[in-house]
Design brief:
The chain contains 4 helices and 5 strands. It has helices at residues 3-31, 38-52, 54-68, 73-133, and strands at 150-153, 164-173, 179-186, 189-194, 198-200. A hairpin with a 2-residue loop joins strand 3 (179-186) and strand 4. It is rod-shaped.
Amino acid sequence: MPEGKVKDLIKRRASIKAKITQFSTYLDVLRGCDYLNDVQFSELQVRLEKFETLYGDFDTFQSEIEMLSDAPEDHYKDRESIESQYYKLVASARTLLDQRKNNDGRSERFQRIEYLKQHFWQRFSNEYVVWLQQKMKWPTQKGDLKEGMMVVIKEKGLPPLMWLLGRIIRLCPGRDGITRVADILTKKGVIRRAYNNICPLPVNI
C-alpha cells in the first residue's frame, strides 16, 4: 500500500475539515445577529460560493484514500461525518440568506401599505371631510349646524382617526346674529370650535 500517498491525502483532507470548522464558526456569529446588514449579506454570499467548491476537493481526496487504503471501511465514517456537517452548513447558510431576502420583501410591502394608508387618509381629510362641512361660509346661514347634531372635530396635525367625535350642545351666534362657533360635548368634555373645524356627520343619533 502506498502509505505515504495516503498520509498526504489525509493531510489534505484535514485542511478541508479545518475550513469547514472555520465556516461553522462564522455562521454561529451570524446566527447571533438579529438582522444581516448589507455587508454581512454580501460577505455570506461570497463565502458560501467559495465553501461549496470544497466538496469537490474533499470527494476527490476521500475517494483516493478509500481506494488506496487496505481498510477503506475505516474511512467511510469520516466521509459520512464530514459530508453531514458540510450539507448542514450549506443549508444553514442558505436559510440565513433566504431570511434576509424575505425580511427585505416584508419591509417593502410594509412601506407600500404605509404609503397607501397615508394616501387614503390624506384623500379622506381633503375630500370627504370637506364635503361633510358642506362648504359652509360665515356670512350665510345656509347649511348651519344645529344643536344635537353629531359632528367630527377637525384637528390640524392629527390623523383623522384621532379626531374627536361629539354632539353639538350649544350654538354661539355673534353680534351680527350669525353663528360662527359651537360648543361640542366630547369624551374629553365640552369643546368650543369654529364652524370651519366642525364636520357634521350625515346621521341622526
